[in-house]
Design goal:
Alpha/beta knot, 31% helix, 5 helices, alpha/beta, 7 strands
């Protein structure tokens, strides 16, 4: 199973959208706090539609809590300043795709910690970033493609 990790997400509608994508792809969603919203928020549920109850989601107090509960996790960090293209790496069956908070991304020290597996989505110079839900979809589906879409029809 592939894992999507959102580091301190701030916008409930983005997290709801990502949750819906995770349900459709049999992907576990990991939310690293602090979160910028409550999980009961209506915008989260609206974006996730009726899929939220089916979502395999784990919430962590902070990054250290995440690391402690996922020892040896094969983490790929997606960040705009990474040098490798997201299609230039080989994803594994049990990899963790980490995306940062909407306003500031993944902290540089975490990206540095996983530098060999830090990837970026190419875009026009001067463009700051894509929407979080779009970014997750792009990278997740590339990982799934490389693995021949396990369990999906």
């Amino acid at each position: 199973m592939i894992h999507v990790v959102l580091f301190e997400p701030e916008i409930p509608a983005n997290t709801g959208n990502v949750g819906r994508t995770c349900v459709a792809t049999n992907t576990r969603l990991h939310l690293i706090g602090p979160l910028g919203f409550h999980l009961s928020e209506k915008h989260l549920k609206r974006a996730g539609m009726d899929y939220w109850d089916q979502l395999d989601v784990v919430v962590y107090v902070n990054y250290q809590d995440f690391l402690d509960k996922n020892p040896g996790a094969d983490i790929f960090v997606v960040e705009t300043f990474a040098t490798q293209n997201y299609t230039a790496v080989t994803y594994t069956e049990n990899c963790y795709l980490m995306f940062g908070k909407e306003s500031t991304g993944v902290p540089k020290e975490i990206v540095t910690e996983h530098a060999e597996k830090a990837v970026r989505i190419p875009m026009l110079e001067g463009t700051r970033s894509l929407n979080l839900g779009n970014s997750v979809s792009l990278v997740l589906y590339e990982a799934l493609r490389q693995l021949d879409f396990p369990g999906l029809t």
